[in-house]
């Protein structure tokens, strides 16, 4: 059974959201939402940056709210349900494919698949 990984805390949507918040630049997350949803994300991002300055607990809460909203809107854009952020890690092959997409090289995926096949023989 295939499992979505964009709704995990270590998935690519939240990873880009963390980068965006650290840099103070919303641009990296806009690729995850439809153009019609960009305004809502931009407004929430601006509010999140303000709240993050109010202390550690406020920062954690604001970040989590931003992650949840971003993933919910992303999933809606895919026509998929949002059932909350998951804490469990994505399967290793999914992480390998994400790395391949980021780097433009399939070498990591090939090593992972080859190793998995070899261990099963």
Describe the structure in your own words.
The protein is mainly α and 121 residues long. The protein has 2 domains: 1-86, no CATH class; 91-121, no CATH class. It has 6 helices and no strands. The chain has helices spanning 12-23, 27-30, 38-52, 56-77, 92-103, 107-120. Helix 3 (38-52) packs antiparallel against helix 4 (56-77) and helix 5 packs antiparallel against helix 6 (107-120). It starts with 11 loop residues before the first helix and ends with a helix. The model has no long low-confidence stretch (mean pLDDT 86).
Outline of the structure:
The protein is mostly helical and 121 residues long. It has helices spanning 12-23, 27-30, 38-52, 56-77, 92-103, 107-120.
Quaternary structure = single chain
The largest β sheet comes out as: none
User: What's the SSE pattern?
Assistant: HHHHHH
How far do the termini sit from each other? 23 Å
Radius of gyration: 16 Å
How would you classify the helix and strand content by structural class? Answer: mainly alpha
Runs in which pLDDT lies below 50 for 5 or more consecutive residues are: none
